[in-house]
Write a structure and sequence with these properties.
Layout (H helix, E strand, L loop, with lengths): L1 H7 L1 H16 L2 H13 L9 H4 L1 H8 L2 H8 L5 E7 H11 L4 E5 L1 E4 L2 E6 L9 H12 L4 E5 L5 H4 L4 E5 L1 H5 L26 H27 L2 H10 L3 E5 L21 E4 L6 H9 L4 E4 L4 H6 L4 E3 L4 H14 L2 E3 L10 E2 L12 E10 L15 H6 L5 E6 L3 E2 L1 H4 L5 H20 L2 E2 L4 H8 L13
């Protein structure tokens, strides 16, 4: 279902759901062929990234702790699967350290999958293992781990030890804790926030019309009514907002120092969804100008607050932000992109030299049905998916003010001070949310999830 929905769209997922009863009536091999046909037929091979961007999250949640420990004791590893290789190879190699993955190859015509699998998955001899590992490795001990439902006698004949597992054995296993992951799961893509079991998928399709109606109502209320009126209505519709302020409450209307009135307050927050600036505006009960690294034209037109795009030219962006701060308060997400998991990406240090007063803001968002972010899909639909959730929640924590410009301009090491301030604010936000700080960037995320550097070109250049 994940492949059908994330790679093929809503209609393909509906078709798969409708044929699922027939899949249950036939044998396992025929059922797999039917599902592969529906999920892959017509999908472009070059753009298929579900196997590396979406599925690893769900595969990791299914890994058994006992089986994982046994696997990690081995040297070189070969993984075999009845599923199409393109679905499992990325997960097995990147997260479990499998050296070679053997799976079903999909037939491709003119760069598109046709939904058919190659007949031969594994040659019925152990010679291919010798080709993979070489003669020296094959002289050592070989251990086989398999399932009683799918024995591989022609391969296990060379194994010194064989462990055969039944479904009952697997049910007794414990799930692999996240802290035991061989590689932390920081980035993942896809719109579905819950595991799409048949019943869950049916519930999603039943809820979908109501979710769209809910999004329209919430959008109209947020865009047309003032905060004092819209906030109670939105809360009644299911939106949840938790606000935490520091002991010395941040003042947005006046300051005690007259000299500081020449510039507004710069709010620096980690990035969870496109709606971060809107929730901050609701928290402060006033609209705030938002500076963004990338924003779709549709989102820009519909935004109830002023939005300004960064050009990624340091000098030009610095002048623009300085001008905006002279006009009022400003909010910026220096990560440059969103991160769903409890991690914070590297902060760009540009903001540290812009504001005399910087207020760190810790943001966290939760969705039960749809994610409001994407790396490879249509970003203009991000607010739609987030607001379609029955009870989307946000947690906004305003932290203590820090000094920016006055510190950066003291001495000749302004660049070093900017980095220190940026790293310090990143750590403070991470501490407030109990998130782990990383040095990963927007480019790292998009290379992993979308296969590009994440730079959005202006339409007039296309």
């Amino acid at each position: 279902m994940l492949v059908a929905f994330e790679a093929g769209g809503l209609l393909r997922a509906l078709v798969l759901l409708l044929i699922y009863p027939f899949v249950c009536l036939v044998n396992e091999q025929m059922g797999l062929k039917m599902m592969v046909m529906v999920c892959f037929c017509g999908i472009k091979k070059e753009t298929f990234r579900v196997g590396t961007a979406v599925l690893p999250k769900y595969f990791l949640e299914d890994v058994g702790f006992e089986g994982f420990e046994m696997l990690m004791r081995g040297g070189r590893k070969v993984g075999m699967s009845k599923l199409p290789k393109v679905m499992v190879e990325g997960f097995l190699k990147e997260y479990l350290g499998i050296d070679v993955v053997v799976g079903r190859e999909l037939k491709v015509v003119n760069g598109y999958y046709v939904g058919l699998m190659e007949d031969k998955m594994i040659r019925k001899s152990a010679s291919f293992l010798q080709e993979i590992f070489g003669e020296q490795t094959m002289d050592s001990d070989v251990i086989g781990i398999g399932s009683l439902c799918n024995p591989l006698d022609h391969l296990f004949s060379i194994c010194k030890e064989i462990y055969m597992l039944s479904d009952a054995d697997k049910k007794k296993w414990h799930y692999l804790p996240k802290e035991k992951y061989p590689k932390p799961l920081i980035f993942h893509d896809g719109r579905l926030a819950q595991r799409p079991t048949p019943l869950a998928t049916l519930a999603i399709f039943i809820y979908l019309p109501f979710g769209i109606f809910l999004f329209i109502i919430r959008g109209l209320v947020a865009l047309s009514l003032p905060y004092k009126i819209s906030n109670p209505i939105l809360a009644f519709s299911g939106l949840r907002l938790k606000i935490t302020k520091p002991n010395s409450c941040v003042s947005t209307s006046n300051t005690t120092n007259v000299e500081h009135k020449s510039k507004g307050i710069l709010y620096v927050c980690n990035h969870k969804t496109l709606l971060d600036p809107l929730y901050l505006s609701v928290t402060l009960n006033k609209p705030i100008t938002a500076v963004t690294y990338s924003l779709s034209r549709i989102s820009e037109l519909l935004a109830p607050i002023k939005t300004v795009r960064l050009t990624r030219d340091r000098d030009q962006d610095a002048k623009m932000m300085d001008k905006l701060l002279s006009q009022g308060d400003l909010v910026l997400c220096p990560e440059g992109t969103t991160c769903r998991e409890p991690y914070i990406l590297r902060f760009s240090p540009l903001f540290a030299e812009m504001g005399d007063e910087i207020v760190p803001v810790a943001m966290d968002a939760h969705a039960s049905m749809f994610y409001g972010t994407t790396a490879s899909g249509f970003k203009c639909l991000d607010p739609l998916f987030f607001m379609m959730n029955p009870f989307p929640s946000y947690n906004v924590k305003l932290l203590e003010k820090v000094s920016g410009t006055s510190r950066c301009h003291d001495g000749d090491d302004g660049g070093e001070l900017r980095l220190k301030i940026a790293n310090s604010i990143q750590k403070e936000i991470g501490k407030a949310l109990q998130f782990e700080c990383t040095k990963l960037t927007r480019k790292d995320k998009y290379l992993i999830l979308a296969g590009n550097d994440g730079i959005v070109k202006a339409s007039n250049k296309s």
